[in-house]
Amino acid sequence: MLKNTIATIVGFIVAATVVYIIETLLGHAFFPLPEHIDPNDLSSIKANLHLIPIGAKLFVILAHFSGIIAGMLVAGMISKTSMIPAYIVGGLLVLATIGTIVMLPKTVWFAASDAVLAIAAFYFGKSLASRHVYGVLV
Questions:
Q1: 3-state DSSP call for residue 88?
Q2: How far apart are CA 15 and CA 35, in angstroms?
Q3: Could you tell me which residues come within 8 angstroms of residue 130 by beta carbon, excluding any fewer than 6 positions away?
Q4: Per residue in 95-128, pLDDT tens?
């Protein structure tokens, strides 16, 4: 029980760290936001979403995809006995991705690709985690 709790917490921390690194550190380094946009202010982002470079948006999608996979994989690697930690991590991150889509007025291509790839990442992460729990890719 404690091992699965730790697996869930560590998996979520790894996922959040991967999302942060890809979205913020790499994405903003390659595609800086315009100076007047405050990335910590949701209303500033909403008002200026059309000014954010497409490359930065692609890094957001890549970050969500990679974070879900990494978090689920780590949760499965730590647990080794149950897929529940991986499912919790993946499910929370898919819900967070959907929440982001709902909170920010995104273009159709951005919202659709983010949602589809988040769900695909869940299934890919499930397969990788199952390898460490069941010993086979499912």
A1: helix
A2: 28
A3: 76, 83, 86, 136, 137, 138
A4: 999 999 998 878 899 999 999 999 999 999 999 9
